[in-house]
Design goal:
Three copies of one chain form a homotrimer.
Chain A lengths: L1 E7 H7 L3 E4 L4 E5 L9 E4 L6 H6 L4 E4 L10 E4 L3 H12 L14 E2 L4 E2 L4 E2 L4 E2 L4 E2 L4 E2 L4 E2 L4 E2 L4 E4 L4 E4 L2 E4 L6 E3 L4 E2 L4 E3 L6 E3 L4 E2 L4 E2 L4 E2 L4 E2 L4 E2 L4 E2 L4 E2 L4 E2 L4 E2 L4 E2 L4 E2 L8 E4 L2 E3 H20 L7
């Protein structure tokens, strides 16, 4: 997430009593996770095995538990609990606010947009022209909805990421600083759930249509003109190309890349990146034609095997 | 869908400047898709490969892009964009209306029925005697609910069909002219989603019970006294017989017929019609006993194969 | 369920005109199903094959259709329709009440707890300190929510069990006398559904986190610090240990026991008890490493088989 007001590393070091190493005159302009990091961003690292990756990233400032050697121009802030400082900074930039009124007074809704009965519109949400928010739908804080979008009744957009840090005392929740961004002419089915990104945005591309009860995890990015049938689930941070078609109950794991024009048959389970233009099936999935051939071959084998169960050589 | 006021073919030809061929004195009494068509209905066709099927159907009037030979007694309306005219006619018969109040003033609710807090009841919905609409549930426009029906909290009934026409500029949504019809003594679980039919009705038969988070697609027809466990999905226009039992997370593809008294074990995926009285399992599913035998045989084979991985003949 | 006021067996026998055998001076202190029964409880049995199990249970009073021999100290109430009397007694102890106001006047909400817009809080619900009930969420009657709990928007907690008795005229619903009990620091994702227990409680243990669209069936008990990813389903009365991790779209059948520290990979289907500390995969699932090896072996076999389809010996 971008900060609305930059933070100086010295003021941070003072406030949290952190040891500062390297560049002492840096303004931090954003807070991010390692995979979304840009110049000017602060990140944190707490496991030694990720030190190198973090120090070599484009991050300008790193919260780190040890005073390691600092790369040229960057700032290290050494502290015992890097995650706690990180999470505290996100909470200050994005304070938790209660949703007491059905339509927040800080939401911006285009005059041509329609909000139906019992829908809830969160703080700082934006809703474009000719869009419809169906009855009993929930649009969470900071969600951006384009023009000509239809959110069917009972859809829940912009809720918290399912993202926790394991500690000795249980799971600590990351405060989600990201948003959900829905482009023009998208349709979101009844009962869908779309989570905010943790530090980046969850994005639904122009013209994409989601059937009912689809789940989109934190930070996932869907391309344009995709069709996702009912009960499909896409886990966090996965990137889906344009014109992708997923039939019912498909599941896609996190951090994957699905190429353009991929088709996934019903109930497929995806655990690795998929190449553009191809059709897949199965759980774990493979190319559909190959999977069909394999299934037919195995079925034949199984029958032969049952017919001669005591065969000496097989 | 049936039209509340018939349309004369000549007035249509004039209004949309269409070329009229065949019967010049026909009253259109309904608008339909090809698979639901009745005498008196108007349909559309835009791909030459479907011309024959459309012309030979019981439809009385066909919107078609070419002036082909017209069957005896029927009317052809020749136009460049048959779907656009079709969709416009549905929109006129079933104009889109916003749901601003929790309970529409055009809904009809039996005095003995109960509507709980934060529920939304759509335009022209009908709710029978001794039925309960749970908290935060949504009953969409034109939905018909019988007597003694329980809609659990948060269920969403009568939302738009997931049905689009692919165009050069993306997906164009069909205006759904159908309804959801729920017969007596049905129970719909929390978080279920049931879509309206596109031109016909989605039907839930008498005494059928749905657990939570079940999805029923547009125009699907469920028989009497079925039990569908949680997270089952039935795709559009599939017909399910009486006393069918589906365990959790089963998925059924579209346009299929599932016979009476079929049982489907958990997580099964159905891609073809299923015979009455049988028990199925797997994805894609087969008869349960056979599938179990096959699985056992394959497991055995796999173990043997692992034991002698470099075997010359196998 | 515990009765708030004990019932004397003689008064029951008189009111329903039942024949009483055995102990004539017994106070019934609870009503239960056979698998949850405690001393002082009334149960019912209607199939002769379950007579022995019921008579030998710790139940103190048994509704039964035949005057069989009565065990020492217990009471038999002989009646034609034991289930009808049982269900009537549950209905009297837990009468059905309509939820007309968003927040029931009989709910108890800690002053530090937050209830967001359009949420519904049921009769006799209890919500602890620093807990948040998200927008449009539903908390059903008698639900108990601990401290520091977050219920995301649109979650539906404490709805009726999917539990019916088959009769000649269709399915008769059991009145659920149980509750949902959610311990401290639990998080429930958007669109989740959690059913009440039929006679016992559905329990979510301390620190456990549920992603969106998870379903938890009636009477299921989840341990502490579990993580359940999106679209997981747990069927009724299953007991899940501590620190269990389930990836997306896993399904677990009813009446099972899942040990501590079990991990279930995405889309797994569980049909039997699972041992503590192990990792499982597949549907039906097996130990993950073994299943992976089997899949690889079968894939290799299928390819060999395809390469020589007319082989004489295989």
């Amino acid at each position: 997430m971008q900060l609305s007001k930059p933070l100086h590393v010295k003021s941070l070091a003072e406030r949290f009593t952190l040891k500062l190493a390297g560049n002492e005159d840096l303004w931090i302009t954003g807070i991010n996770e390692i995979h979304k990091v840009r110049r000017g961003d602060l990140i944190f690292v707490d496991a030694p095995k990720y030190y190198a990756k973090s120090l070599e990233s484009t991050a300008s400032c790193i919260l780190i538990p040890e005073a390691v050697s600092c790369p040229e121009g960057k700032t290290l802030l050494v502290c015992d609990a890097p995650f706690e400082v990180y999470n505290q900074l996100v909470l200050e930039a994005r304070p938790q606010r209660t949703q007491k009124s059905s339509i927040s007074e800080t939401a911006w809704i285009h005059p041509s947009a329609i909000v139906e009965a019992n829908a809830t519109i969160g703080h700082c949400a934006v809703i474009g022209a000719n869009s419809t928010i169906g009855a009993n739908a929930v649009i969470g804080e900071f969600t951006v909805i384009g023009n000509g979008v239809t959110i069917q009744p009972g859809a829940i957009v912009g809720t918290d990421a399912f993202y926790y840090k394991k500690t000795a005392h249980g799971f600590r929740k990351w405060r989600a600083g990201g948003r959900v961004v829905i482009h023009d002419e998208v349709e979101i089915g009844a009962g869908c759930t779309i989570n905010k990104g943790v530090s980046g945005d969850t994005v639904i591309g122009r013209g994409t249509k989601l059937d009912c009860q689809v789940h989109i995890g934190h930070g996932a990015v869907l391309g344009q003109h995709c069709l996702l049938a009912a009960q499909v689930g896409i886990a966090g941070k996965t990137v889906v190309g344009d014109r992708v078609v997923m039939y019912g109950q498909v599941g896609v794991a996190q951090n994957l890349t699905i190429g353009n024009d991929v088709t996934l048959y019903a109930k497929s389970g995806v655990g690795k990146d998929l190449e553009a233009g191809k059709t897949y099936f199965g759980a774990p999935c493979g190319e559909a034609r190959e999977m069909m051939r394999e299934m037919a071959a195995l079925r034949k084998l199984a029958r032969e095997h049952q017919a001669k169960p005591r065969s000496g050589t097989n």
